[in-house]
Amino acid sequence: MVYVQVFLYLQGFRSRFSFSPQARFSYLRMKYLFFSWLAVFVGSWVVYVQYSSYTELCRGHKCKDTICDKYRKGVIDGSACSSLCDKNTLYLGKCLSAKPNNQVYTSVWGDLEGVIKCQMEEILHYDLGAEMEPRKEVVLFDKPTRGTSMEKFKEMVLSHLKVKVGEQANLQDLAMLVLSVADSNKDGHISLPEAKSAWALLQLNEFLLMVILQDKEHTPKLLGFCGDLYVTEKVQHTSLYGITVPWLMELWIPSGVRRSMDQWFTPSWPRKAKISIGLLEFVEDVFHGTFGNFLMCDVSAGTFGYNDKHDLKMVDMRKVVPEAAFREAMRDRHCEDDEDCVYGADCRTSCDLTKRRCTPEAIRPNLAKACQALKDYLLRGAPSDIREELEKQLYSCLALKGSAEQMEMEHSLILNSLKTLLWKKISHTKDS
After folding, report:
1. What would the pLDDT profile of 179-226 be if each residue is shown by its tens digit?
2. How far apart are CA 341 and CA 335, in angstroms?
């Protein structure tokens, strides 16, 4: 009897304090409404942040408007101007910009696919200060001025090139090469608008290097220009390795997992070997080439790409700088320690603490930096019969120190040995 009374008491207690079906439904509805509101709020915030970032980062319409306004006023001219501004046969496509002041877009120009690059600085002059890139001047496209003769413009170009690439016996040849590019309509004369465009473009490391290496396999072809906007050949794959994931997922992927993912999503090993040979050949192209030596100051995966035949193509050459200009810039730079003597991600010198000035000589040659980028890339999945030898050669390459001039023999030996080893392994495959 006591048990029955206790049971009835508990049943009554539970009935008094339990939710009725209506109350439970009301609670669930409030919970649903709260989380729905929260999802809408977070989603709206994400969209706003993304839109704000995009509009700040991708300003192609402003770039085009500025260029076309100058073209229509007769200030600038170039082989791409009419197609971009009058005929509308040169289109800006997907935004690829990584920085607001350097606008990059895919493009379609008639039947050609390309990449448009446009500077959003006011104009540029080469100022060897803390940075190797040009600095702003007050007026856009202000040089050369009206009345400048062809001979005077050639002297301006020669003087500028001497600062950039150093004194060379063939400086006149380089100047003539630049002037031939400046003559965009190939009529044998350089008009003032063409000269203004060429002068603005000459301030840019990448443009100058494209002119110098225009016949080299691993440099994208220069298709045309208008002002300081220029169009290059499109590279199908815009990173040495890796996979693109939505930015929201990127936030939650640990860096170690991300590095592993990058290595998972790569071509087959013979194709990686062919791409790597291309990078070694580019190192040869910029080392004591026809018009001087250049330093690769950013050897990250995103600066290289490759086409559908797995031939390496440079995607971003803004940080491939003339050694002569690099030395002068570093010689004038104040420092407190070695970390003050760094340009880009991969070019560094040491700090002379007695003078508080950076020394001019780069510590690591291009080849060692290229091998650093290729080490994990090549060793992952390497055939067992060459893996040990490949690893040995890569580590010998990584150990290179000092300028390539000081170790030219060793530099050439290691580079040629690596190329030979890779070619020997893939020469009999369809990927070669």
Report:
1. 999 999 899 899 999 999 999 999 998 999 999 999 899 999 999 999
2. 7
DSSP reduced 3-state for 345: coil
| Spatial CB neighbours of 393, under 8 Å, sequence gap ≥ 6 | 414, 417, 418, 421
**From CA 199, how far away is CA 175, in angstroms rounded?**
12
CA dihedral 274, 279, 284, 287 (to 10 degrees): 180
HSE-up of 168 (CA within 13 Å, CB side)?
23
- Count Cβ atoms within 10 A of the Cβ of residue 355 and give its class: 0-12 exposed, 13-18 middle, 19 or more buried: exposed
Instruction: Please write the tens of the pLDDT for every residue from 335-372.
Output: 999 999 999 999 999 999 999 999 999 999 999 999 99
Within 13 A of 33's CA, how many CA atoms are on the CB side?
6
Q: How far apart are the two ends of the chain, measured CA to CA in Å?
A: 94
How many residues in the chain?
432
pTM tops 0.85: no
Cβ proximity of 221 and 113 under 8 Å: no
Two structure tokens written together for 353: 């603490």
For residue 144, whether the previous peptide bond is cis, meaning omega lies within 30 degrees of 0, is: yes
DSSP class of 126: -
Pair of tokens at residue 277: 């040979």
